[in-house]
């Protein structure tokens, strides 16, 4: 059988048999404790700056961001963004409880459909699980309330993320998942699919020149709900919390 | 894929004379280098991360049997199936069987170099199943019935005109007078064409950049999102991965991911880094109903414990070829198999046999740039030298070269004779090249001077040879 052939060849060439029990136990310990390695210092920042780094990195990767003070402000932010981009007001939205708790009825013109994305959808609104400041990356684990198709099928993806869910390094996001997710099937923490998304889709396959909007979304817009008082921009809290006007910077693909 | 590596010299000569290719190489070359340099400069920890990356891979390889078993068990806990395949043939058969069981007519594919290695497309086609490449670069390669010329940018050798011409030839249902004003128009056309393919496919095949023993996950890294459409929309997902891709934990994979995109495209992180673990779970609204891993050895386990074992650390970032003067001059096709550039010169002989690839380890200037940029610090030049030695031992070196080397060895082992011979050679070379400033051709070394000039020997110092200069220096220092 191929399995035994492969394992035996490996062992023969490593000049040993199967690992002795004590060594195997040690390696199982390493798997269980999953030690961290060197983590770049760049994201180890006071909260306001950490969230600001997240926003800056998102924008560097051609995503757009709008900060809103509370969940009740999300419908207006989404409606304004769609209008500014000339996009339809009908969209597929993650059937997630936090998304359902947003008062969408405040904007009656929005047609919200709680479901996975279909090929015909031009806009998808996804629930953000975590944000990673290190590179402006969104963590989007699959779940009944967070279908994967919303991340990749629509031309425009909007992600609603709470500022409390912004962490510094990838490792911290894995730890959130480990602490919060218990999968019924495996008993482990790993969902079927975890996407780490950093900006809208792109390709440089034609003459090594970057073009946005390959197979996935050509626009990625993050609505960041400032539910973390410690993460608010410091000093003169007076200027509007919006760091990017909808449509204010050239949207990818325009 | 057919191995044409023995023809490296002819391939290279053809490549150097290919105007279109030279233009494409010229356009593409600089982009990767400057982007990588900028990304590396922006991360002060990068050098230390290279050590981390090397150590993680070494640890995984030293315990490869253990981690593969843990990995396979975790896949199966998550409802996936692992198909262990010793050879390319086993893997082709496993994939065909999964496709047949799924009643598949079309299969979409994400970019996978292993899929090229085992030539699975031809196998599926000859069995009535249509494979469709969805990575933009792979797509045009498939239309043109070529092979990729670069491991992360398959269409590295093509110019914009080539794309336009091919799309006009292949997409005959579109208006003939359509205009491709910008590169984006080319991409949009491909996007439109491939959308329907994604939706129609019964099976999606992706590669894997990493396998994670802790969770039983396969990881893909893309910028286009085609890999995610490939593994999410069809009913069956096959992840095609080789055994050395396994790492212990999410943290291990994360550290390597910090190196991968920066070394490859010069991005801080790729757009989509996706971890797949098993099939659709209870209550989920999308995702494949079946999840298979085709786990391929194909000669890798036999590299362990040899002087080529360290090559298994490779994370396929392509930095070595992007920085290689030889690759930059001749492109990827000249290397004659799936893996070009320095990593290919080491890997191809190991996987395809040195008998069929003896020329490859010579496709190097030994400038050392590849090793200095490799994110997992693989000593590529040293390994190419090992192959040269093996090639010589196994009498695969051309006769004239062997005779000359044997003569050199005879002389080199006799210091007095050696000094006399080198002094004579320096004098002769000086005469031969006088008035020309360099030595454009050399009797008995036509192969070497065909593509380059030999600089004139140093005439400063006493007599011109290193030994002579050294002796003179010692005398001057009064020792
Ligand atoms: S050998 Fe090193 S530089 Fe070359 S592709 Fe592999 S990891 Fe990258």
Automatic annotation (TrEMBL), chain B:
* Top-level taxon of the source organism: Bacteria
Positions of the 4Fe-4S ferredoxin-type domain: 304-335
* InterPro entries linked to this entry: 4Fe4S_Fe-S-bd (IPR017896), 4Fe4S_Fe_S_CS (IPR017900), FTHF_cligase-like_sf (IPR024185), Helical_ferredxn (IPR009051), LUD_dom (IPR003741), LutB/LldF (IPR004452), NagB/RpiA_transferase-like (IPR037171)
| Signal peptide annotation | none
Keyword entries, A-Z? 4Fe-4S, Electron transport, Iron, Iron-sulfur, Metal-binding, Repeat, Transport
PANTHER family per the record? LACTATE UTILIZATION PROTEIN B (PTHR47153)
Protein name according to UniProt: Predicted L-lactate dehydrogenase, Iron-sulfur cluster-binding subunit YkgF
